[in-house]
Amino acid sequence: xxxxxxxxxxxxxxxxxxxxxxxxxxxxxxxxxxxxxxxxxxxxxxxxxxxxxxxxxxxxxxxxxxxxxxxxxxxxxxxxxxxxxxxxxxxxxxxxxxxxxxxxxxxxxxxxxxxxxxxxxxxxxxxxxxxxxxxxxxxxxxxxxxxxxxxxxxxxxxxxxxxxxxxxxxxxxxxxxxxxxxxxxxxxxxxxxxxxxxxxxxxxxxxxxxxxxxxxxxxxxxxxxxxxxxxxxxxxxxxxxxxxxxxxxxxxxxxxxxxxxxxxxxxxxxxxxxxxxxxxxxxxxxxxxx
Length: 290
Description:
Elements: E1 7-8, E2 18-21, E3 26-29, H1 43-55, H2 65-79, H3 87-91, H4 106-118, E4 120-126, E5 135-147, E6 150-157, E7 162-167, E8 171-180, H5 189-193, E9 206-212, H6 214-221, E10 230-233, E11 239-245, H7 249-257, E12 262-266, H8 268-284
Antiparallel strand pairs: 1-2, 2-3, 4-5, 4-8, 5-6, 6-7, 9-11, 9-12, 10-11
């Protein structure tokens, strides 16, 4: 049986004592912990750890940067006598590059993250993507996510009584309130994003079918774009890509990025939107009248 009254030692004779907590069914330390024992990992595991450390680059400039850096440093210090290569060796052969990353406003990010962690309502002014002015918002912040190199807040807009998505760079005059709330038990960011191609989802499902020519077919087939995707190869080397999404806005921009290598088969509304956008692009490059 676990010991709930006595004290046990930690990892070694100089480690701090532990005491059993019967309410949580586990041990806790009664003194400050200054170090942990070294652990043994394989070369593949240490490489994966390095990749994870690089993938956390989007946290640069946020309150998470310092503790993450400290945690990785402690882990690598514990491994230094058990591996035959260094971080510098991996730097030479593995790298990450983010294009279009949004610079983080440290003060704003810290306020928003505090509101999410403490479950307190948040007030701020917000400018929608297609709006020229700011609107006052009061929300219950549920989740903070970094998607496609940009930070977004998922929150219940109290005036609109709906879950809304807010891009942090479009927020200003952010202020914490003193009113707390309880996050809904059925809130799931996985479910919310399951129908989106990026960030936004209306909830209504759209069946999308696209065709890519042989050149683009190879590039499209090499990646996982969405969990619902179905790819079918055609005799001429082209492919069809089928998706089920809750919004058409983000897929529109993605289709246009392929230029003449992609064609919308369905739905008709998406095909018409892409056609109209293509006409606008052509008109931009019409020679000016003399």
